[in-house]
Protein 1
Amino acid sequence: METCTHRLPATVTLARDRGSVTLGWADRSGRVTAATLRGACRCAWCTQARRRGQPVGAAEAITAFEPMGGEAVHIVFSDGHRTGVFPWDFLSDLATMEPTP
Ligand SMILES: [Zn+2]
């Protein structure tokens, strides 16, 4: 089986305050905040809440960041939400792209 890894970051750095994650590739880097990730969570619970027009919750920090193979990462947020799984592609899209100096 072939795995597409071209968008897999080379480095993933959790900020000291755990409020954001910086993804680094060979030619660029991007930062995404815990609040953005929490608001963009695509788990069944959040998807349903969003569909009903309910708030999906908010978090200012990432409690755990656990890569699941080369496809996605499981993120636990400071508000206790722990069902979020973020594909690297999705994280890459969310990250604010900054060219590497
Ligand atoms: Zn969720």
Protein 2
Amino acid sequence: MNKFLKPLILSILLLNHIQAVNAADLEAGAQVFSTNCAACHAGGNNAIMQDKTLKKDALETNNMNSISAITTQVKNGKNAMPAFGGRLANEDIDNVANYVLNQSEQCKEK
Ligand code: HEC
């Protein structure tokens, strides 16, 4: 095999792999969300504090539009939002944070 072709094919394979992993994470995140978060955040809304939705604009305004901000809040809780640190595995928290951020980017209208 040509010495340029081989690294090219390997990187394509690697990219495909990364995409597959991402898709699985979002699906797992959706599960975690419906079990643990939807009670207060159905449809990306907030049943307790109406301004603190999971929608793009609100996340931006409240500086919550990053994986690290969401993970921190899910682990530690904030005011009326319970802490999930002791209840969910780090992997679940990562997945649900990715899911929330990804969803917020898909419904940009609000
Ligand atoms: C008992 C209700 C409740 C549950 C369950 C809950 N939250 Fe929250 N969530 C809140 C409240 C209340 C706030 C606003 C906290 C504040 O800033 O005072 C909030 C805020 C947030 C924010 C920041 C939103 C913003 O615009 O600032 C994110 C992100 C979030 N929650 C994600 C989650 C995730 C992910 C889960 C599930 C693992 C979850 N929440 C479960 C009540 C809840």
Protein 3
Amino acid sequence: MFKKYLIPNAQNLPEGTAFTVEAEKYSFLVTKQQGRIFAYENLCPHQNKPLNWSTDSVIDDEGDYLKCHHHGALFSITDGTCITGPCQGRHLRKATVGMEKGDCYLLLP
Ligand code: FES
């Protein structure tokens, strides 16, 4: 059984941007790529720090990857794999995202 947490206004999130949602004791980064909403725990597998410690965007300049500002790791938006950086090959923890009646939710076990 999943617990649902509303992701406010997710459908209107512009491509290439991200915001955080708090659910239970976790922080999640929510972003959109090619019309799909993705959510990952905001915790870099390199040193277990939040990716967004600075005010800079957690999306790289081209809008293709999530970026950890601590040591520059880049992560695939679609599956959370680190494609370059000190934790290459490791993954962000992906959260399940569901839709219901036009609203977008984080679904946590
Ligand atoms: S803590 Fe994210 S790259 Fe080092």
Protein 4
Amino acid sequence: MHKLFNTYNFTNFSITKGNGSYLFDNKGKKYLDFSAGVAVNALGYNHSIINRSIKDQLKTGIMHLSGSQLHKYKTDLANILSKNSNKGDVFYSNSGAESIETAMKIARSVGSKNKKTQIISMTSSFHGRTLGALSLGHNKNYKSNIGPIPGDVIFCNFNDSKDLKKKINPKKTIAIIIEFVQGDGGVNICTKEFAKTIDDICKKFKILLIADEIQAGVGRTGKMFAYKNYSVSPDIITMAKGLGSGIPIGATIIKNTISKNFNIGFHGSTYGGGMLQTRIAYNVFNFINQKPFLTAVLEKSKILKLGLMKIKNEHEDKIKEVRILGLICGLEFHEKNYALKIFNTLMKKSLITTIVQGNTIRITPPLTVSKKEIKEGLKIIASSLSL
Ligand SMILES: Cc1ncc(COP(=O)(O)O)c(C=O)c1O
């Protein structure tokens, strides 16, 4: 019995510790974690980068500083995020949804000068659970029976250039928001052709491009930002999850052409940019942003892909599609509700995955997962499908 608000399907075991790609429960059972706290724990568990950052932070005696108080990590992290993306300015918050709210507020403010407030989002999109973020998400189940949510958002069919051209209204549309790899929607990967259409349209009509990098950013696709798999240049970038690799942090990067027009007081966040979280994120980002690390992500992705394709060939009747970019992968099944069934079987066999939309399980191991651990996970998946 517990007194937790019943909004999650809680596990029937309690976790006590973690190490590398593994979690351990209170009965000593060991789990291989191919969810990584829903694509958060980029460096897995008990990683020296995080541990050392926390120890170093303790030496300062500081737990909190106000938003206006500068410190080394606040500025250093902003500088590397900016340098490695659109050279913009950084606003810190605590979560993905908050970084989305920031992006949305900025886009609406830019548009308000010309009475343009419409934002185009994508079908199957997910951008968070606050009311503003929910308005940008496509899944109706997440936003029914909660009264009015902010409006003027329309949805374009993901990867459908024709639909986007039809839906754009240069007099109304201020921004397009996209996850270049949709996470919650079923691990749907943006095509190069669709990304080009978005880029052309944004440039032609001066529409802002918002890249939601909350799940697929920070090395997850083998590049520091998922949008870097395409020829696009986002005006606003939202980040969270892997950026803190377990410590809550959100960041919104805003191109200078936009950020220069905003004044003090436009936005704020009490805990945003704290010394602990920016220190950790700075060290995590630099650790991941190295060629050998990112090359290893792609090599491990190849092993995962080959293994899953082999399993698919052996189970054509069960697996409909394997979608993968770097270390974010979706396994879609034919039979209704099979994803839930296989998720439970995998859990019983000590492999943690996540269920997402579209009868799909999502695999997002820590980026530090070893090739041996990937093979171990593949074996568990193969044996579970044979049941
Ligand atoms: C693409 C994307 N955007 C936004 C969010 C919301 O992030 P948070 O749960 O930290 O508010 C998520 C969370 O899963 C996400 O995957």
